Amino acid sequence: MSLPTSPAVTNGSAPSVLIVEDDAATRRLYKFMLTNGGYPVIEAEDGVAALEQLAKHPCELVITDMNMPRMDGMELIQAIRRDYSDVYVILITAFGTPDTEKQARRIGANDYLAKPFDFEELERRVRLFFESRPRPA
Question: Helix, strand, or coil here: 46?
């Protein structure tokens, strides 16, 4: 796993990432990888918990699994687009097809990863998002 050469902190505040994943071990792995990269991470086990977290802790980036209990990733993306339109969303799924990716992008996913993937690829996409986002004046 590569680490950013410069810290993720800009202007005294660190960008935050919300990881939404029902599998606790996978969620811990993503959190470990991203916190080592300098990103503060908030966790949620499904879409319902994610919306509760977003109401308390605004995030710039949400990484969500697709298949979860209570509210899946597609429903979560729709809710994020309705209530938090500026949040960047990466959808991760183990059941990806070209049609699934098209549907995810159509409802508002900014990026898409199909499992299995190299964890460095997820870290790279997170880093590219934070490097390319507009900076506050």
Answer: coil
